[in-house]
Amino acid sequence: MRDVAVVGFAQTPCVRETDGTTNGVEMLVPIFHEVLGSLGLTKSDIGFWCSGSSDYLAGRAFSFVSAVDAIGAFPPIMESHVEMDAAWALYEAWVKLLCGEVDTALVYGFGKSSAGQLRRVMAMQLDPYVVTPLWPDSLGLAGIQARMGIEAGLWDERAMASVAAQSRAAALSNPLAQLSGSFEVDDLLAAEYVVDPLRRHDCAPITDGAATIVLAAGDRARELCERPAWITGFEHRVDSPSFGTRDLTTSPSAVAAGKAAGADGIEVAELHAPFTHQEILLRQALGLGDDVVVNPSGGVLAGNPMFAAGLARIGEAARRVHDGTASKVLGHATSGPLLQQNLVCVMEGRA
Amino acid sequence: MRPAAVVGTGQTHHAAKRLDVSMAGLCREAIDRAMADAGVDWPDIDAVVLGKAPDLFEGVMMPELFLSDALGAVGKPLLRVHTAGSVGGSTGNVAASLVQSGVHDRVLAVAFEKQSESNAMWALSVPTPFTMPVHAGAGGYFAPHVRAYIRRAGAPEHVGAMVAAKDRRNGALNPYAHLKQPDITVESVRASTMLWDPIRYDETCPSSDGACAVVISAAETSGPAAWIRATAMRTEPTTFAGRDQVNPQAGRDAARALWKQAGITDPLSEVDAAEIYVPFSWFEPMWLENLGFTDTGQGWKLTEAGETEIGGRLPVNPSGGVLSSNPIGASGLLRFAEAAMQVMGTAGEHQVDGVRTALGHAYGGGSQFFAMWVVGSERP
Amino acid sequence: MTKPLSAPLDVGFDYTRSTGPTLGRFLSDLRRRKVTGIRGSDGRVHVPPLEYDPVTAERLTEFVDVASTGVVRGWSWIPEPLEAQPLDRPFAWALIQLDGADTSLLHAVDAGSPDRMSTGARVRVRWRADRVGAITDIECFELSDEPSDEPVEADDVTMVTTPVHLHYTHSASPTEDPFLRGLMDGRLIAQRCPACEKVYFPPRPACPTDGVPTTDQIELSDRGTITTFCVVNVPFLGQRIPPPYVSAYVLLDGADIPFLHLLLGVAPEDVRMGMRVEAVWKPREEWGPTMQNIDHFRPSGEPDAPFDSYSQHL
How far away is chain A from the Cα of C187, in angstroms, using its nearest Cα? Predict the structure, then answer.
């Protein structure tokens, strides 16, 4: 198999609401220019394009179709789209590069969550016959999972608040973060519940945003990037949708993806955990010890652009390889209710 | 790139409303047939790829998530592809790449649409603020481009009716087809209601519930195999200044890349059967030109001469095609699967004699997304 | 820059779902005030019944009657219920293991206060009076150790209707905004791509061939040429004019891309590719930020444009 690396990454600021359309063009145009410009590339240098987005987030069928306007896709391009977080688009692009047909790929994801009522929109992901008709909201479901972990002794509200405090403190050094600041755990715990046992700080904010990654293979990667983040393990798995049959205090798909991707020796991990308890759960599932730096960007608790956030985790992790601050990193993405689907991308720098 | 082959295909009985099954049941009808055809069981499947057109059609956001038990995907990688109407084709190509890359040995590709859960016309035309509603309905988008083709190519008016009559007669040979009209004639098509002049009622595709599945493998299983000789995907914007909507560049580019990868220099003589995405009859001659089977402006002559019938020089849509069954998200994978069936010799009554090389083709959006593959009987 | 125009976008449809045999049995039994589970490959009884086993993927067929009473296995508290949720007063979401089942069902518990909720609490079904064969036939659960109402007779169901009503705010792009505001004044504002210099009407968020926002504004006249068209003879949902009528691509003079609009004031059989047309505007008091300010186009009486003048726009 060929070696493939993340060589470029750009993302928009994470904001509560953008003025633009739900087709992402206004968010994508500047980050395409940024990522291509930083690599000295133009659109014609890209062999394959792949994106991730959701029609239900936009409230319209085919919302991804207009997004290709941001590329300027004429002459025609080799292109594909997943109705998933763009981390899975990155996976499709990685596979394409492994096939050897092309040497470069640009992957992007975008989402304007502010356009709809996110808590209700996400109910559309549930079983349409016996669950969605009740309109369970994403916070209500996460609250059940959080309480199960608390009552099983796996985490508590203080540990959850501590995750939030760390996220916002880390985000102070991330100029694109939506939420950042210095917070005392006791002050956070003094807040009212939003959905008992979750407080506001336990839940990722509603965010509009987009992210993009450029992949390159072999020598092309070495030409483009001084220290490419070579992908050494890229795995994803899905669990049963029937969460009443699952042990919600862990995530078999995350455990399996982490094991298959080779999560040993990780120095930095960016985890896609939209709720504080899920960061603790994922650390346990992926076997990340206390020596692993988790979410130095602040993670999605500091800004959660739906359908781009998983891709951005991989980009943030890769950035630590690019800048030489780490040599083995992990980017994680999740999809579906209660961590149903999980993806792990392990990347390494080489001397 | 290592070789990959289709080793099993399956599809549902397509109908306007499959009210006897749930979405999971619909998918499994196709999957169970494909796995039986391939002679494989769930432990043999490494990953699953699901393709489907817009989520608004069934009113489920990312339905692969709630279907993961039924798709046998629990504990495995599951991808969801969505590239508009071409999605079935893209699903086949992505599944092929998972094997060709060496990532997996055996992959299940599934595509479905259960149009009866809602109304596609509604889902595609939810009134959006500031946007001019199209006053034309479903076929109204494509009918002006068909008119432009007829004018540019100087094609006689009966060619569209010939395609429709042929595809519906072929559909009568296909036990899974939604529409079976063995007695249809060019005259009866021409006598049918003019819906979107120049498109008549009998020249339009039905609206179907249905699913399709294929098993793609790095090695042969118990039965015959259709080896994937080439795949191609191309995209261009829906509209732009100076865009050729009749003969889009993206389709021409995809075809050129496809033939090159397959080592085919003269498609018309080297391809033995083609399953081409033809939702309105006139798209057969349009795509024959776009795919390079004929020169520009000449596609209709192949159709008019009867060369696209079973027994002709290039049988097109021996299965009956999209004009006989149209479960939107699955329609592309059906074309890909039917091409494989022709090569595997498993097409039954609509089998074309001696097929060694076949084309599967899909397109979507405003004729802007293209996905294709060429399958052959010989391991590359 | 002013914030681009935005407006509500409601996406609503009553989806009609065929249940298939497994879910059909479950929903039919709910109508009878009965709860039915199914036995999985590992022997566990699942409620709601699963159509396919999560471990083996095999189709499951062994139905098992369970009680309409059970125990809370996990819960959260919703102080402010959202639209269409089971209760309009504060309630708990709970995973409930019914007596006789091994896995849990998600539903609402009408507990009144979070102080009364606990994991391990006993609950029973509160049946809806007018049951149709849907998960909402269970109105909610209530805290109780007592059995629920007795089953009754009812016909089978094979379909379930699921209303989906979502509310969005749709925003125009910054490039569309001057175009929409121009329409409110009866002006047709196009934009030129700074790279390829093509004139887009309506303007796009970015030039589709260059991927850069269009910038220069150009005002166009309301005259143009029909590039191609179709005659609509078919009635369909939402149609506002009785067929037959003509839907045509209009290339405004000075624009580089045609758009679809109505062509009236001429018999459909007399419409030609290349026909010259002009806009017929609605009365000014009906104008808004929409191309529907132009009621339709009609022939201008000028001679037809030559084929070569628009053939590259087909």
Answer: 23
Distance CA B183, CA B72 (A): 41
CA distances to A17, A323, B100 from B31, rounded to whole Å, are 43, 47, 22
Q: What token pair was written down for A173? A: 């050094």
Q: For C57, which of B42, B56, B243 is closest by C-beta distance?
A: B42
Output the DSSP codes for C4-67.
Answer: PPEEEEEEEEEEEEE-HHHHHHHHHHHHTT-EEEEE-TTSPEESSPPSB-TTT-PBP--EEEE-
Residues of chain A with pLDDT under 50: none
Separation between Cα atoms, residue B106 and residue B32, nearest integer Å: 15
Q: Using the beta-carbon criterion (under 8 Å), do B236 and A77 form an inter-chain contact? A: yes
Q: Domain residue spans in chain C?
A: 6-165, 172-220, 221-314
Amino acid code (one letter) for B280: F
Of A19, A43, A137, the CB nearest to C4: A19
Residue B340 backbone dihedrals phi, psi, to 5 degrees: -65, -40
The ipTM, to two decimals, is 0.98
Assess whether pLDDT exceeds 80 at residue B138: no
Per residue in A160-199, pLDDT (tens digit) is 999 999 999 999 999 999 999 999 999 999 999 999 999 9
What are the C-alpha distances in Å from A339 to residues A271, C69, C106?
A: 12, 29, 17
Question: Quick one: which H or E segment has residue C193?
Answer: none
Element spanning C114, H or E: none
The CA distance from A85 to B372, in Å, is 25
CB B332, CB B362: distance < 8 Å:
yes
Residue of B nearest to C289 (CA): B130
What's the pLDDT at B131?
Answer: 83
> Considering only CB atoms, which chain B residues are within 8 Å of A74?
236-237, 240, 243, 249
Q: List Cα–Cα distances, A90 to A78, A313, A341, B79, C21, in angstroms.
A: 14, 12, 15, 11, 39
In-domain check, residue A18: yes
DSSP class of C254: T
Q: What is the pLDDT of residue A51?
A: 98
Q: Which residues of B319-347 are buried (b: 16+ CB within 10 A; e: fewer)?
A: bbbbbbbbbbbbbbbbbbbbbbbbbbbeb
Q: Which residue of A has its CA nearest to C53?
A: A240
State both tokens at C232: 């609509």
pLDDT band at C2 (very low <50, low <70, confident <90, very high): confident
pTM equals 0.98
In this predicted structure, what is the pLDDT of residue B122? 80
**Is the per-residue pLDDT at C1 higher than 60?**
no
The per-residue pLDDT for C55 is: 94
Buried/exposed code over B95-109 (b: 16+ C-beta within 10 A; e: otherwise): bbbbbbbbbbbbbbb
Residue span of the structural domain in which A65 resides: 4-117+206-227
Using alpha carbons, list the distances in angstroms from residue B239 to A5, B252, B285.
34, 16, 22
CA angle B16–B165–B169, rounded 5-degree value: 70
**pLDDT tens-digit readout, A217-270:** 999 999 999 999 999 999 999 999 999 999 999 999 999 999 999 989 999 999
What amino acid occupies position B355?
Answer: V
Tell me, what CATH number does A78's domain have? 3.40.47.10
CA distances, C3 to each of A19, C175, C178 (Å): 6, 11, 11
Distance of CA C135 to the CA centre of its chain: 22
Residue A52 belongs to a domain: yes
In a domain, A25, yes or no: yes
What is the Cα–Cα distance from B67 to B79, expressed in whole angstroms?
12
Question: What pLDDT band is residue B36 in, cutting at 50, 70 and 90?
Answer: very high
- What does the pLDDT look like over C253-288, one tens digit per residue? 999 999 999 999 999 999 999 999 999 999 999 999
Tally of domains within chain A: 1
Do the domain assignments include residue A251? no
Q: Give the percent of chain B with pLDDT over 70.
A: 99
